[in-house]
Amino acid sequence: MTNPNRVNSASTERHSTGRRAATPATAVESPLRWACKNFEFLQRRRIAIGEQMRAVLQERDTGWPLEHPIVGEPDDIIRDVAFGRSTGPVRVLGDAYRRAWTDEKEAIVVMAGLLEQHPVWPWLGHIKGAGPSVCGRLLSRLDITKASRPSSFWAFCGLHTVPGVRYECAECGAVLVYLAKQRAVGHHRPGTEIPCTHALTRSDVSEKIRVAPRPLRGRSLDYDGSARVACYLLSLSFSRQGSSYKAVYRRQRERLASRAEWTPQHQHLTALRITSKLFLVHLWFVWREAIGLPVSLEDAQLAGEPVQSPWEMIDK
Q1: What integer best gives the mean pLDDT of the chain?
Q2: In the chain, which ranges are continuous DSSP H helix?
Q3: Residue 213 pLDDT
Q4: For the chain, how many structural domains are there in total?
Q5: Which residue range forms the structural domain that includes residue 39?
Q6: Quick check: pTM over 0.90?
Q7: Cβ atoms within 10 A of the Cβ of 141, count?
Q8: DSSP string, 151-188
Q9: Which among 283, 198, 189, 187 is positioned nearest to 235, based on CA atoms?
Q10: Residue 101 lies in a domain
Q11: Could you give the CA distance from residue 129 to residue 48 in angstroms, rounded to a whole number?
Q12: Which of 114, 243, 244, 280 has the most C-beta neighbours closer than 10 Å?
């Protein structure tokens, strides 16, 4: 007996024509993007093996048979294994870490070769501190054709600002700044380990406050997190090298030192942020100029820092 609720499939399904249904075209990733993915995968593998070795060297993992006693600091032993001067107390882990280290370095060489073919290389190759592992990850995520102005790079890399709200505590004097769409917590720490549970009072609503975006639980990011990390690592490298961008970082640290209410860490991160933003302005200009897109570098100020020609920033 047939089911009266069953619908005749012949009347509802389209007959096959022998051709596959058209699927939306997916963007083809560049060789640099694939090289960066390979590097990140190899880096995670090397770190995982290194942490396993560290657990053995610190005697947190005693399940591995030791071929010889542990002598020396864990960092020194791992460094010797990476450079082939030792296999470590566990030869299997030592050989695996050595191979992972070699594979990671070979991936960096591949990225460096692809960077030399990039349109911005004639300028980027003369910037101290702009290593291939960080620059490759940053450039592989940027699309210059979609950035009509430098602020597009800032927004994509999470270096823009969003509306914020200031809260104050009348009891402990703490001043906290939250995102406009972020809920203020019921407790806070006024610079000590003892939390204050008094209510926070919202400042004047008409006060315009801009803050850096941050991840919120249950909400997706409106910027590229990997690009933001790459910008941070790049500016940190600039601050440690004797490059023109290190001079920018130092000037910003001196300018921000007058803000007594800011902690040294806050001043440091803000100076790195401004250094990254200036680098992205120069990168935007050189990249668009190299591929023939219209550019305009007007007389502008970025936190008191003049936005000069990118070619004046190269380290000869």
Answers
A1: 81
A2: 9-12, 31-57, 74-82, 91-115, 121-124, 132-139, 150-156, 225-240, 244-256, 264-290
A3: 74
A4: 2
A5: 31-117
A6: no
A7: 17
A8: HHHHHHTT-S-EEEEEEE-TTT--EEEEETTSPPPS-B
A9: 283
A10: yes
A11: 26
A12: 280
* Residue carrying structure tokens 């290593």: 131
The most confident of 53-62, 66-75, 97-106, by mean pLDDT: 97-106
Closest to 122 in 3D by CA, of 287, 238, 279: 287
Higher pLDDT, 127 or 206: 127
* Number of other CB atoms surrounding residue 271 within 10 Å: 23
Cβ pair 103, 39 in contact under 8 A: no
| Exposed/middle/buried for residue 228 (C-beta within 10 Å: 0-12, 13-18, 19+) | buried
8 Å CB contact between 261 and 114 = no
Same domain, yes or no: 39 and 113: yes
Decide if 21 is inside a domain. Answer: no
The helix-helix angle for 132-139 and 31-57 (nearest 10°) equals 130
Query: Going by C-beta distance under 8 Å and a sequence separation of 6 or more, which residues neighbour residue 237?
Result: 129, 130, 131, 134
- The span from the CA of 180 to the CA of 203, in Å, is 12
Say yes or no: 37 and 103 in one domain: yes
Average pLDDT over residues 265-271: 91
Show Cβ contacts of residue 36 under 8 Å, excluding neighbours closer than 6 positions. 111, 136, 137, 140
Question: Residues 98, 176: one domain?
Answer: no
Task: Tell me the DSSP string of 7-40.
Answer: PPHHHHSPPP-SSPPP-PPPPPPPHHHHHHHHHH
Q: Which of 55, 87, 117 is a domain's end point?
A: 117
Q: Is the pLDDT of residue 268 over 50?
A: yes
